Structures are given as C-alpha cells and as structure tokens.
Amino acid sequence: MRIGIVCYPTFGGSGVVATELGKALAKEGHEIHFITYRQPTRLDFFSANLFYHEVDIKSYPLFEHAPYELALASKMVNVVKYEKLDLLHVHYAIPHASAAYMAKQILKAQGIHIPVVTTLHGTDITLVGKDPSYEPVVTFSINQSDGVTAVSEDLRKATYDHFDIKKEIEVIPNFIDLERFKKQKKEHFKTAICPNGEKLIVHTSNFRKVKRVEDVIYVFDKLRKIMPVKLLLVGDGPERDRMERLCRELGTCDDVRFLGKLEAVEEVLSVADLFMIPSEKESFGLAALEAMACEVPVLSSNAGGIPELNIDGETGFNCNVGDINTMAERALEILSSENLPGFKARALARAKEFDVSNILPLYESFYKKTIESS
Ligand code: GMT
Q1: 36 lines ligand 1 (CB under 6 A)
Q2: How far apart (Å, rounded) are the C-alpha atoms in residues 350 and 335?
Q3: Residue 11 confidence class, pLDDT cut points 50, 70, 90
Q4: Quick one: which of 52, 75, 136, 303 is 20 to 30 A from 335 by CA?
Q5: Glycosyl transferase family domain: from which residue to which, for each copy (predicted)?
C-alpha cells in the first residue's frame, strides 16, 4: 500500500508511535509518506520506502497565527494526488483529522477518492479535544473519518463518553520494537550513578502537569529515608523548573539527576530498577512499555489505559492518582531483593505481547478493511 502518515514530529508519544509504525510498514514493503512540519525525531536515515514531505507554513503580517491546518490540508492534497496514495493515516485528532477531511473534500471535487484513518492518542480526547473551543470540530472529523482507532479500551470508552460518536472505534494498542528496547549491558553507567549499589528509579516524560512529576519526587523522598536509592528524571517541559525547585526544597538534589531530553532512553532504562508513571491521565503509557521491554517493573497510577498494560501485582503496581503513601509502600515491595527479579521477568514477558510484530498486522488489516469499505 501507499500510505500517507500525518503526525506531530516531536518527542511526544503519538509522534513516536506514528513514526515507528511508518518505519515498520516500510520494512514490510509498503511505501510510506510522512507529512509533517518537521522531520520526525526518529526518522533520520535513508530507506527506499520512506518519504518525507514538509508542510510549508507561510507567514504573513496579517496573521497573528499562521493557518497551519490549511497548509497541511494543501500538502495532503498534493501528496495524495502526485504520490497516488491509497490511504491517509492521521495521528492525533487536532487538527490532523479535520485537515484530512478538508483534503478529502478537495480531492473528491477532483474525482479522487482517499480513505482516511484517524488514530486517537489521548490528550486529543481527554484534555484538549473535549474543550468547547475544539469539541464540535473534533466530533465532526472523527465521525467523518473512514476508520477510527484508539490506543486503549479506556480511550475508546472516553471518546464515546465525551463526544457524540457514531463511528465504530477499533482498539489497536501501542507497540514496541524489542530489537531496540532491550536491556543492554551498561554496568559502568549504573556504577557511575549508583556508586554504593543504590536502587535506581527512573521517570521519563515531557514534564507536563498531567504527568504529576511531583509525585515521583515525593515518593522518592519517602524512599530515600528508608533505603539507598537514586532518581533519574529524563525529559523536559513546562514543569521542569518547578520540579528542580521542589528537589532543592526537599534537600534531595544529591540523589536526583535531571538528564533533560535523551534520544537513547533505552540506555538509561537498561540500568533502572523501577519506572514511575503517576500520571493524572494516560491513555496508554508508551513510556511504561519502553521500560518494561528493558525489564523494568512499573509503579503507576491507575489512570486511563495504564492498567491495561501494567498488571497490578505482577508487572508492578497501579495506585490511585496522587496516593503517594501507597506508592511508596508499593515501591518498597517491588524493590525488595526477593521480589525484584520476579517483577522484572514478568514486566519483560508482558512487554513481549506488545511487540511490533504482533501489532503491525492489526494496522495492516485495518487499512485493508477501511479501503474496501470506504
Ligand atoms: O503523553 C503525552 O503527553 C504525549 C501524548 C501524545 O499525544 O503524543 O501521548 C499520548 O499518546 C501516546 C501514544 O499513543 C500514549 O502512549 C500516551 O499515554 C498518551 N498520553 C496521554 O494520554 C497523556
């Protein structure tokens, strides 16, 4: 198939899933055309089946905000027409699904039919999408898509709860490339961070409020009073300054390191003993899956779709959002030397269920079904 993929080219989960999906489809022989405003972060190499089309966003003194959606729709029209695409797959509803609708209508007027698949990722539904300033457009463009997928059962349900959706939504979960995300031998790295054999806790995120990074720090502060531990915080975003201040207030600075954005996050995960993801909302939790693939148990909140991935008492624990006392108790349980090996092994076994080789065929058959029925 010739497939156009539209996504945010950033470090965010939806962009990562879209890029990895395109790469995996290209390996299977499909021709993949990425349409974004910047080269996706994980697409920095040559492959015969991968193409990148940059959206030109022209500014003009009259515009306070350049009309990105129009530039994107125009680019989609041209790529579909000249690259003879069979399908457009847009990731994240806003504004990609509505831009795709516009492109579809323009192409229809020219006698070209293009089926559109929209994948819902989370905040496009649970945070931004349901805001009254976007809701009518989001509802309309989901209903106008030829096929709709969501990354978890919980997100599927949330979409039906928040919007008047007539379309069938199919759940296709996030996936992982176990060739890349696997425990690597990085003992020298572990020794540098944990010179006295401390246990290592890791959190990775985009440091948005919804991630509740402060809960990671509060839980860590409780743990360090009981056992030798270190904390690595990977990523960057609006909450980082506040989190650094919190560490200074709690006096944890010697045991906490902020690493900022990191491309090879699997290297850090390879030396971690526990991964924390205490989010307020989380449709799937790709970061947790990446950790599990590197044999790291997960201490999470029970928000959104996380419990569909992290099995309570087996691969880690799920606690109520903000319940830092229970989180600290559960962390101790996981980190105890008799429990830790079992949690690590079960985390890896669970991650294997989400291997790209299991999930890719679900997308391929969904595409075929959508093309046939549209
Ligand atoms: O988590 C983020 O803030 C990034 C966000 C995105 O849209 O890029 O991630 C969402 O999509 C990921 C891939 O499907 C999911 O694994 C994340 O759980 C989801 N984030 C939220 O729901 C907050």
Answers
A1: no
A2: 19
A3: low
A4: 303
A5: 186-340
Please name the fold of domain 2-175+355-373: Rossmann fold (3.40.50)
| C-beta neighbour count of 342 within 10 angstroms | 12
Pocket test for ligand 1, best of 7, 121, 321 (most atoms within 8 A of CB): 121
Residue 43 confidence (pLDDT): 83
In CATH, which superfamily holds the domain spanning 187-352?
A: Glycogen Phosphorylase B; (3.40.50.2000)
284 in contact with ligand 1, CB cutoff 6 A: yes
Q: Phi first, then psi: what are they for 96, rounded to 5°?
A: -65, -40
Where in the chain is CATH 3.40.50.2000? 2-175+355-373, 187-352
| Any atom of ligand 1 within 6 Å of the Cβ of 170 | no
* 89, 22 contact by CB (below 8 A): no
- Regarding the beta carbon of 92 and ligand 1, being less than 6 Å apart is answered yes
Q: Measured from the CB, is residue 282 less than 6 Å from ligand 1? A: yes
